[in-house]
Amino acid sequence: xxxxxxxxxxxxxxxxxxxxxxxxxxxxxxxxxxxxxxxxxxxxxxxxxxxxxxxxxxxxxxxxxxxxxxxxxxxxxxxxxxxxxxxxxxxxxxxxxxxxxxxxxxxxxxxxxxxxxxxxxxxxxxxxxxxxxxxxxxxxxxxxxxxxxxxxxxxxxxxxxxxxxxxxxxxxxxxxxxxxxxxxxxxxxxxxxxxxxxxxxxxxxxxxxxxxxxxxxxxxxxxxxxxxxxxxxxxxxxxxxxxxxxxxxxxxxxxxxxxxxxxxxxxxxxxxxxxxxxxxxxxxxxxxxxxxxxxxxxxxxxxxxxxxxxxxxxxxxxxxxxxxxxxxxxxxxxxxxxxxxxxxxxxxxxxxxxxxxxxxxxxxxxxxxxxxxxxxxxxxxxxxxxxxxxxxxxxxxxxxxxxxxxxxxxxxxxxxxxxxxxxxxxxxxxxxxxxxxxxxxxxxxxxxxxxx
Length: 452
Ligand code: UD1
Ligand code: MG
Hints:
Radius of gyration: 30 Å
Largest sheet: 12 strands, parallel
Helix content: 10-25%
Number of helices: 10
Number of domains: 2
Oligomer: single chain
Structural class: alpha/beta
Bound molecules: uridine-diphosphate-N-acetylglucosamine, magnesium ion
């Protein structure tokens, strides 16, 4: 068994200026979660001995997003090399004590990275003790602003040159720096300490450690890895491109796990969406964070789900909206233009049309008529509505919470229910109907006469 361990340093202190945003770059979301969480998720299966995230000033929000990983502040952001140096003291003695053989540096802005890819890079570093640095290389369609990998005639990696500092010949190189590196732990911080800032940006470039290691007679390797996994998000356009790639990956995974997506390209998942087998998702459905579907659930077109747990056999939509805290038990039907928030619908309950069910508990087998509204908010507080089993709520009922409707009760259509309804009662809470025979014809005749 390979007992070597590694420490991960995730860089996230850059200012992300190219996104033109008030929010730290690494908190911009891909598939409903901050991009840096995707990077940490890719590390988890590899069980790093330590993970340190390097953050910028005023980034409590990022520190919270990466917890329980340790974080350290780099300020001012003086470049990727400086960021790695700042993490050094945190790892300090742990490198030797925990038998850490490698330091893997990752960027918080490469959300598509997978565990397998990190493992491949690590394996390349460990292949021989002479290899001080293994760099993830890639050949993106547009090398743009990526660093270029300069190889010697024998194919060895000589140095990395940043696009801004490259001459025309170097810019023409298609092999680019994917941004992740595995470095021999025994040498990592010594190499990093030697980085200078004599370059276009006056920054300490991590990429310079390749030339520094070569200068010491050490070997550096490139492992060519899939460019789409190494996509670095620096602009809104790249954010959208990363989202598209992630969605493709999530759609493929959903189908492999036994869900039918009628029109995959129109379904949007969150990274944490969980689907059972034989789920059917019709076209144009959006899954926000925190959705779990059991087997045999059908989500019909144009529905939006977030924070919802749905048991088997349920049918949702078309045009339904499930908000956080929606729990649908077996065989529930939630139909068009129904919004459910912080509410549990018991097995077989139905709310088929045009309703708002918020902060409510609805018993098994109950029917919620079209247009029923739980009036849960009094302008200051939220209150709950409780409806028993097998109740029948007539169309266009307003349930003014807090209120309870007992098992088996019938509430007449158009009621405004302000006090509790006993079990098995019929409740009519609306104005009485008054019929005036012939009166309509009289009015019409008069109006026509007046008009002449
Ligand atoms: C970097 C690489 C480039 C590579 C590309 C891949 C360097 C010098 N350049 O360029 O070769 O092709 O990534 O995506 O390494 N960061 C800090 N502190 C800093 C500066 C940056 O923590 O002082 C963090 C950023 O938050 C980001 C990561 O490091 O997560 C990379 O920084 P970024 O500015 O995006 O570098 P690139 O210009 O993309
Ligand atoms: Mg970048």
